[in-house]
Amino acid sequence: MKPESADKTESFYIAVILYESSSDAPDYQPLYQECFVLLKSNSLEKAKGKAISYAKKEEVSYENEDGETIIWSLKKVIDVNSVLDDGFELASDGVDLYARHFRNYEAYHSFEPFLSQQEL
C-alpha cells in the first residue's frame, strides 16, 4: 500500500493565523496581527499541522527602542482551507484565494483599522 503523499498531489491552502503581542511595559496595550499564509500540502489535515508548525516558528521576542521586551506569540490558527482558485500561478491578474463570511458589519468596522481610520 502506498503512503498518502504518493497517492495525492499537493495543493495550495491558506491558513489564517492570529498573533498577539505582549510586553513587560506597565502601560502596554496588546496588538494583534492576522496573517494569511500560503501552504502546500497533500491533505487538509496535513495543511493544518503545517500551519501550526509555521505559526510557532514565527513567534518572536525582542527589545524595542525603549528597552521594553515585546513578545509576539501565537494566539490561534483561525482557519485552514484550500485556496478558492488554485490556478493563480497562471492568472495574469485578480484571483480569489480566500473568503470568509460574517453577519455583524459594525463589529468588523470597529476592529478593522482601514475602515475605522484608527492609528495602530
What is the fold's blueprint, element by element?
Elements: H1 4-7, E1 11-23, E2 32-41, H2 44-57, E3 60-63, E4 69-82, H3 105-111, H4 113-116
Antiparallel strand pairs: 1-2, 1-4, 3-4
Structural summary, described in words:
The model has no long low-confidence stretch (mean pLDDT 88). This protein has helices spanning 4-7, 44-57, 105-111, 113-116; strands at 11-23, 32-41, 60-63, 69-82. Strand 3 (60-63) and strand 4 (69-82) form a beta hairpin. It is of the alpha+beta class and 120 residues long. It has one domain (4-116). It has a four-stranded antiparallel sheet with strand order 2-1-4-3, with helices on one face. The chain is 24% helix and 34% strand.
